[in-house]
Amino acid sequence: MFHPVREQADSSFIFFKKSCMNNTELINSGPGPRTAFLEKVDAKSMAETMVAFANTEGGTVVMGVKDDGEAAAQKIDTEALEKVLREADSLCNPTVVVGNWEPIEVENGSTVYTLRIPRSIELHALTDGRVLIRSGAKNRPLGGQEILKLASAKSTGDFESEVIPGVTKDDFSRKMIDEYLAKRAERTKRPYNGKVDDLFREIGAVNSDGKPTVTGILLFSEYPQHWMPQSGVVFAKFVGKTPRGENGLAGYSRREELTGPLPRLIESAWNLIWSEMAVSAVVKGLEREETYEYPQFAVREAIVNAVCHRDYRLKGRRIEIRMYSDRLEVISPGGLPGFITVENIVDEHFSRNPRLVNGLFQWGYIEELGLGIDRMMEVMQQAGHKPPSFDARPYSFAVTLYNAREKQSAPAWSRNTNHRQARALQYIRDHGSITNREYRTLCQGVSAETLRLDLADMVSQGILLKVGSKKGTYYILK
Question: Nearest-5° angle of CA 453, CA 303, CA 278?
Fold first, then answer.
């Protein structure tokens, strides 16, 4: 059976007359979660890879390349490519819809061919009953429970590409669009010179009729919460290790509700945590060495993962960030997607919202697709913390970062301060003292009462000495 997108090409293979691509980055990067090298034109291998990519994140097949990136010795026949695709079609159930073969010239002058396979909202299997996913650079068959879990995820549809009634492209922010284009140009090393409407369709921000999708609203609207109230974030800083305070009162000292498009949510959440994060300071001579309560990458990765992978279909619940005295919890609505479990979360990759993931990757919030959890665990270990804790439930997924480090002898002058207090201490070292007014100038946008409590806390800890009274009050190191 021919796919509709390929039926337009006759036996003369008109689509091969396109000029060959000069970009060899795809070849140089090697096989991986989204790239497969096939040395020989083989229908069975082709079908396995088509099913694996369609069931996972999608990917690109490069035909005529060895695993080491070297072009195969045998020249590829374009008619054989179309034949193998027809045979591979017959081995897939249901059929995997793909694009057209595209030629690429490699460094030695040979020509290889690529085929883009998009992620599918259907569950695909081979005619022999095997269900495959892409795992690293291999195609891996799934077991019974994994197949059921993946089938359940597929049956929910493709929510991020659904249209929101009443929304038009006028609801997109020109500022957010320009920011995205600039960040995309930095990521791809080249500006986008085409029509913005074409780009919107390519990235899934609008559908084929030009109507905004969930993806478009979440990325480019100034206030997507107007249509999707569940897309916000709630931040709470608790005094102790539990949410409950004394005498039945709320145990939090700060609570914020964050709104805006996803890039703004990520930045706002990070800035809040940063402002409340304790800093261990060791003063050596006139130099101050600072160690933050949590590794910065681990915190940002936890935030980005929650924003990218939450289930936006679930109404009535937002992402929650809870900051306790001993830990940081980031709770995302919706269970783990597809076949992902707590046990395989490091090795496997499957996104509930691949268009949102790609958008935030182009924006620069994701450094390398599929490697965030690995690096989060690595930086926590390097900082002396125990590994992150993952709690998967049917309708939520939580990541917990613990701030306790392995016990070590700390210098007597080692103190715990938040980020604002650390700035105050640096100011005192530079100028000899600080007043309330000078502290407010350092930390603009923070209430005077919060800053007064910061200084009072450092006095009670014995870090600062309060000198004078009323308007003549200033603080020095004790």
Answer: 30
SS3 85: helix
Q: What's the full length of the chain, in residues?
A: 478
Which among 86, 140, 76, 87 is positioned nearest to 114, based on CA atoms? 76
Tell me phi and psi for residue 319, to 5 degrees. Answer: -65, 135
Q: Is residue 159 part of a domain?
A: no
Q: Is 365 helix (H, G, I), strand (E, B) or coil?
A: coil
Is the C-alpha dihedral spanning 312, 314, 316, 320 positive or negative? negative
Reply yes or no: is the peptide bond before residue 94 cis, omega within 30 of 0.
yes
Q: Are residues 73 and 211 in the same domain?
A: no
pLDDT tens figures, 147-181: 988 888 887 668 999 999 999 999 999 999 999 99
- For position 333, what pLDDT does the model report? 95
Does the pLDDT of residue 338 top 90, yes or no?
A: no
Specify whether 192 is located in the same domain as 268: no
Q: Is the full-model pTM beyond 0.85?
A: no
Other CB atoms within 10 A of residue 302 CB: 26
Domain count, the chain: 4
Write out the residue range of the structural domain in which residue 312 sits: 230-402
